[in-house]
Amino acid sequence: MAEQVQERKIEKDLREPKKEFASIVRILQTDIPGHKTVLAGLTYIKGVSWTISNAICKILKLNPNKKVSELDKGEIDKITEFLKNPKLPDFLVNRRKDFETGGDNHLVTNDLDMKKEFDIRRLKKIRSYRGLRHAFGHPTRGQRTKSNFRGKGKKKAVGVQKKKR
């Protein structure tokens, strides 16, 4: 019985040569774990959602179930080039009707952070309602503030007094 198990293991080792995979793949300054599938791994990049990741796999004809570590240099370069200048339908892009250019584009990684920061700075500068809410640290999307958003500093219970000695 034990001999049969050992023979099977030896046969298995002879059939499948062990492959060395990169444990981390770097795409657009983002570390992606090698054990993830391409579909899930691309979502680690800021600005790439599941929908965008699926669209990338379909447009570039990549197998979404393939492991990220199994991607070769050419496929990684294709993904990088596509993300730098994506050709996506208008409803998938994350920056429609840009304030400065008026065009539709898709931003990823640091570009997305910078644009968001500049937008908030512009809203504060023109003293719009949203800009003031950002400046004061209040919610900007109409949430109620009676019980939530109490304070960013020291957490204090409201309406509770200390005992007088």
Characterise this structure.
This protein has a two-stranded antiparallel ribbon with strand order 1-2. The radius of gyration is 25 Å and the shape is flat. The termini are far apart. It has 6 helices and 2 strands; from the N terminus they run αββααααα. α5 packs across α6 (129-136). The protein folds into 2 domains: 2-91, Helicase, Ruva Protein, domain 3 (Orthogonal Bundle), CATH 1.10.8.50; 108-136. It has 165 residues and is mainly α. Helix content is 39%, strand content 5%.
Topology:
Blueprint lengths: L1 H14 L8 E4 L2 E4 L4 H4 L8 H10 L13 H12 L24 H17 L3 H8 L29
Antiparallel strand pairs: 1-2
Helix pairs in contact: 5-6
Short summary:
This protein is mainly alpha-helical and 165 residues long.
What labels would you give this structure?
mainly alpha, two-stranded antiparallel sheet, Helicase, Ruva Protein, domain 3, 6 helices, 2 domains, 2 strands, flat, 165 residues
Supply the CATH class of the largest domain. Mainly Alpha
Shape: flat
Main β-sheet description: 2 strands, antiparallel
Proportion of strand residues: under 5%
Structural class by helix and strand composition: mainly alpha
